[in-house]
Design goal:
Elements: H1 3-9, H2 21-99, H3 131-134
């Protein structure tokens, strides 16, 4: 509502409201302030559309990211399944090798165990040497 309209509405206003010069000045200031705000909003409006475009781009990026993450997750599960199959095959092969290890007959050189045992062997010269050879 402009000042002219307020002045015209003065006659219709309640009898207790009086249009003093101070009130008219305040209304004019308010009118200027509102005009400035409208201009600022006009300047901001293109920026709001830019923000909306960025938001749309971010939503699209989010969707693509979720798709990529889901694909990698599927690949990880597939590789995990392949690794589990390899472990099963390796365990079966180890069991097959363990089942086919032949037992060695018991002699004085063997120890009574079913585990593999490593022994050291030392070569010793058993023929007696003459004292002359030693000196």
């Amino acid at each position: 509502m402009s000042i002219t309209q307020l002045t015209a509405a003065r006659t219709k206003a309640a009898p207790t409201v009086e249009m003093t010069p101070d009130l008219i000045q305040r209304v004019r200031q308010l009118e200027e302030y509102v005009s400035e705000m409208i201009e600022l909003f006009d300047e901001i409006e293109p920026n709001i559309s830019i923000v909306k475009n960025i938001a749309d781009e971010l939503k699209e990026l989010e969707s693509k990211t979720i798709t990529v993450v889901n694909q990698f997750t599927q690949q990880i599960y597939l590789k995990e399944d392949e690794a589990d199959e390899i472990i099963v095959l390796l365990n079966q092969e180890v069991q097959r090798v363990e089942d086919h290890i032949d037992a060695v007959s018991y002699t004085h050189l063997t120890l009574p165990t079913s585990d593999l045992v490593y022994t050291s062997v030392v070569a010793v010269y058993l023929k007696k040497q003459k004292k002359k050879d030693l000196e």
